[in-house]
Amino acid sequence: MRYQEDGLPWYGLWTVRSTFAGTCGVFLGERCGDDPEIGYEVDVAHRGKGFALEAADAVTQAAHSVGHARLWATIRPRNIASKRVVERIGYQLVRRQPDAKGDLDYYLSARGGPCR
C-alpha cells in the first residue's frame, strides 16, 4: 500500500531456493526530513552474497523512477559493508553528524537536481 500511495517500495529478499534472506526498502523517517531513506537488513547467513547490493540498487531505481529525486542512507561509520553498498550504487557521503548512539554518516542519491 505504501508503494501505491507514496512510491515507497519495501521488499522481502529470497534465495533461489525460497529461503528468506532479508528485507530492503524505502521509508519516511525522522532523520532526513521530507526525503525518504533506504534501509536494508540481510540475514547473517546470506551476507556477502550480493543481496544488499542488488536490492538497494533496485529499490533506489524504483523510488527515483516514481519521482523521489532525493534518497538518503544513514550508516554508522564502522559499518564498512553498508558504506560500500551505497557507494557502489552512486550514493555520495554528504555529512557526518552525531545522534544519541554516536556518529552517523548521511549518504545521498540525487536525481534531477543538485544536492543541498
Automatic annotation (TrEMBL):
Residues in N-acetyltransferase domain copies: 1-113
InterPro entries linked to this entry: Acyl_CoA_acyltransferase, GNAT_dom, N-acetyltransferase
SUPFAM superfamilies, A to Z: Acyl-CoA N-acyltransferases (Nat)
Transmembrane segments: none
PANTHER family for this protein: GNAT FAMILY, PUTATIVE (AFU_ORTHOLOGUE AFUA_3G00765)-RELATED-RELATED (PTHR43792), N-ACETYLTRANSFERASE DOMAIN-CONTAINING PROTEIN (PTHR43792:SF1)
Name of the protein in question: N-acetyltransferase domain-containing protein
Species: Georgenia halophila
